[in-house]
Structure formats: structure tokens, C-alpha cells
Fold this protein.
Amino acid sequence: MTRHPMLRVTAMAAFALLLGACSSTDLVPEETPPAPTTSPEQAEQRLAAVAAERAAIEARFADREIVCYDKFFVNRCLDEAREVRRAALVTQRAIEIEASLYLRRLKVEERDKAIAEAEAAYAREEAELAANPPPVREPVSTELPPPRAKSGDSRVVRSQQRAQENAARAEQDAAERAANVAAYEERVRKSEERQKEVARRVAEREAKAARRAAEEAKKANGNGPAPTTIPTN
């Protein structure tokens, strides 16, 4: 009866030794928030370091897997290795998120600054246009002038002016194109008339040459024109 307790104690001691041999020597790092990023250069360096550390974490996990397969409690060893890997990746993810958020906030601030500068420049332009409106040529009239446009309406005034300028430019372009077409048609008409005149002259010369050749042929054959007879009283 005294042997059974001793056997139980021995078995429990052996089981504890096996668990100790199977347990991982790597300690799971405590998850702490990363230090805040203070510059764009530091953010870029942290993102590059995160990428390199992730590759190193995966390499260490692969090496640990090989070691675990030689252990007695393989699954327990693999679980511990996965937990170490998970905790390390969570830490790197936190660093990555913090650096990325810093860069994103920096871009938003730069965009807001650019928008504010553009709005300020637009406000200055509006004030200048309101203080010094462009002169508008109008016919002399005895009627009272229309009320002066407000500064907020300067954009509408400029749009109307651009529309009028574009319409005038379009009319001028259309007139120039019409003039070019008319000039081209006039040149074509004169060219056709010259061709007709040349053809008429050539036909006349050919007709005269044909008549002269016919007369010369008659003379050569003795069939000249009949002598003129004078009647006697």
C-alpha cells in the first residue's frame, strides 16, 4: 500500500519535467502603446522597421515550429510559439497604425492649410474687385445707373463678362471663317472664268486655222473662187 503514493509522486514529477521541457523559453512581450511619432521622417523609419520586424518574426516562428516538432507535447509548444508570434505582430501593428495615423493627420493639416490659403487669396481678390471694379463701357443715357453690385456678386459679373467675351470672339471667328470661304469661292470663280476664256480663245484659233487650211487646200486643187462678172448694159 505504501508503494502507490510514491508512484503517484514520481509520475507527477516526471509530468512536471515534461511540461517544463515543452514550455517555450520566449516570453510573451507585454503589449504597451508605442511612443508618439514626432516627425514625418520618424514615421517613415518606423514603417520601414515594422516591415523588417514582421519578416524577422515570421522567420523566428518558422524556426520555433521546427523545434516544436521534436518536443513531446508538440501542440502545446506550437500554441506557445503562435502566441509569441501573435503578440509580436500586435506590437508591430500598433506601431504601424500610430505612424500611419500621424502621416494621415499631417496630410490633412497640409490640405486644410492649402484650402485656407486659397480661400484667403480668393477673399483678397473679391475685396480688390469690389473696391476697384473693371470699367464697363455703356452708352450715354439719362436713366439712372443700375445699383452697384455687391462684393458677393462679383463672381457673377465676371462670369457674364467672360460669356460676353467668348460670344464676341465666337462671332469674330465666324466672320473670319465666312470671309475666308467667300474669298476662296471668289478665287475659284475667277479661275473657272479664266479657264473658260482660254478654252474659248483656243477654240477660235483652232476654227480660224481650220478655215485657213481649207482655203489653202482649195487653192492648191485649182478650185479657187469663181471670177466676179461685171454686167453690161
Summary: Confidence is low (pLDDT under 50) at residues 1-29. The chain has two domains: 18-131, 155-220. The chain has four helices and no strands.
